[in-house]
Amino acid sequence: MWVLIVLGVVVAAVLYFVGIYNGLIRARNQAKNGWSQIDVQLKRRHDLIPNLVETAKGYMKHEQQTLEKVVQARTAAIGAKGPAEAGKAEGLLGAALSGFFALSERYPDLKANQNFLSLQEELASTENRIGFARQAYNDAATTYNNKREVFPASLISGSFEQAELFEIEAPGERSVPKVEF
Fold first, then answer.
1. Domains of the chain, with CATH numbers?
2. Are the C-beta atoms of 88 and 80 separated by less than 8 Å?
3. Do 13 and 27 contact (CB within 8 A), yes or no?
4. What whole-number distance in Å separates Cα of residue 51 and Cα of residue 58?
5. Of 36, 138, 154, 173, which residue is most buried, by most CB within 10 angstroms?
6. pLDDT tens digits for 110-158?
């Protein structure tokens, strides 16, 4: 009789830890899926930038340095590996694009160009999608990290690496905007 009780407790404990392990796998896969969604939107953003720069080249002949900064930042962003590195590179790309759009305000013909306006609108839409994907990924990564760090999952989560959060590290992005009337 005692043998059956001990065997039942052992089987229950094994099933419990199998459930924890499977939960960790599901959470890790959700985080990976979230990162894939960000990656898709970042690729879309990276694909739009050359068209935007090419459209602006004819109008902004004297602003070659600004255009080169955007292209260099895009190249760095494409080569970034992992959420932390991508966040830093995307922050720099965002800053370069902000400078580009601020400079484009000096060129009324460029601002009136339908192709430029269309690309600018598409880029803004993509930025929104990146924001939503970033939030979903960070939520999934946080859930996964919490699952792997709480007891008793922490007893078996040694082979599960912590998920990095995707944070944009652009200068000025954390500062409060100044509003003047």
1. 31-155 (1.20.1440.20)
2. yes
3. no
4. 12
5. 138
6. 777 788 888 888 888 888 898 889 889 899 999 999 988 888 887 788 8
